[in-house]
Write a structure and sequence with these properties.
By secondary structure, this protein is of the alpha/beta class. Helix content is 32%, strand content 22%. A six-stranded parallel sheet has the order 11-10-9-12-13-14, sandwiched between helices. The protein has a five-stranded antiparallel sheet with strand order 3-2-1-5-4, sandwiched between helices. A three-stranded antiparallel sheet has the order 7-6-8, with helices on one face.
Length: 337
């Protein structure tokens, strides 16, 4: 689910940047092919200004126009967008499907309080359910993720999750480039390195957290995050070993559940680390999400290229995929004669 609109709305309303409030447009249903997914959002202001997108084109223009009516009336409203491309129908696109978009006005102190609760929960690394009733006399409200949820016929329910957190262990050249790319694809960034001349806000301006404490202390502070990734890009195998031991300890205590642990280095370096762990009685089978050496095989050489390789693997794990080329010609065997 998209959460970018909520910080924007919170700032907009809390600073009285728009006294008339704003309309939040949410894609609540999709059939067939569509430019955006269920949960994608856009904010529309009275002056026509927008934040984010639900797919662009004539369909989005239709939503922006109707949103102006919702701003005035305060009445929630559905907007149906036809993307079938059938000439005999009035269509707003040719993707082949349909979208249902829910428009709701957000304004006032109650909306601000709700947004603050959402953002505080996400900041703690926890997920929360946001329930948006379809009745005009009911306002959106929050539920814990394990609470019973209402029927989809009476409300749109979305589980809001914090951005995935990537802990980069090792603040060297690769770590610096990885932080930039991972941040640009939606990851929160945390950095750990015992060298303050490397791990600092000058080199890592976009990092949410920078640590120079030992890795065990760092993991204690980060436990509980619901979507956690780790990239070990340290300056030596002894630091990889220390981090892996700490991660295993937290894993066994169910304090941290890493979706991804990637470790940089040659196959020899990786093998040395894993063999050392096994001699200590630590089986590599206890790391089902360990990817070593880290990254996808794209022939990367420079720190920037290696960071791209790692980021591509992060996307693959987060979104699902094969890592194979998408190009059509790659599926066609070479012609014979």
């Amino acid at each position: 689910m998209s959460i970018d609109c909520y910080p924007y709305l919170a700032e907009l309303l809390s600073q009285n940047l728009n006294e008339n409030g704003a309309v939040l447009a949410t894609i609540a249903g999709v059939k067939g092919s569509a430019p955006r997914e269920v949960g994608a959002k856009m904010v529309i202001l009275g002056n026509g200004e927008i934040f984010s997108t639900i797919g662009g084109g004539a369909g989005e223009a239709k939503v922006i126009q109707i949103a102006q009516e919702v701003l005035i009336s305060g009445q929630k409203q559905w907007v149906e967008i036809d993307l079938s491309g059938i000439a005999s129908k009035k269509v707003e696109g040719v993707c082949g499907g349909q979208m249902r978009v829910w428009l709701e006005k957000w304004s006032g102190e109650s909306a601000i309080a709700l947004l603050q609760s959402v953002l505080e929960t996400l900041k703690r690394g926890q997920a929360i359910n946001l329930v948006t009733p379809f009745e005009n006399n009911q306002s959106p409200y929050l539920l814990a993720v394990d609470d019973p949820i209402p029927s989809s016929e009476v409300a749109f329910v979305e589980t809001l999750t914090p951005p995935p957190l990537l802990l980069i262990v090792g603040a060297g050249h690769v770590g610096e480039q990885l932080a930039k790319i991972a941040y640009s694809i939606g990851f929160q960034i945390a950095v750990q390195d015992d060298r303050s001349e490397w791990a600092n806000s000058t080199r890592y301006a976009i990092a949410a957290k920078i640590f120079t404490e030992p890795i065990k202390t760092v993991l204690e502070q980060l436990k509980g995050h619901c979507d956690f990734y780790v990239a070990l890009v340290t300056r030596g195998y002894q630091y990889d070993l220390e981090a892996l031991e700490a991660l295993l300890e937290n894993h066994c205590k169910n304090q941290i559940n890493c979706r991804y642990i990637g470790m940089i280095g040659s196959k020899k370096r990786v093998r040395l680390v894993l063999q050392t762990l096994e001699k200590k009685g630590v089986s590599t089978l206890q790391f089902p999400n360990l990817y070593a050496p880290i990254g996808l095989d794209i022939g990367a050489l420079t720190p920037e290229e290696i960071a791209v390789s790692i980021a591509a693997e992060l996307i693959l794990i987060r979104r699902g995929g094969t890592g194979k080329p998408l190009s059509f010609h790659s599926l066609i065997p070479d012609s014979q004669g």
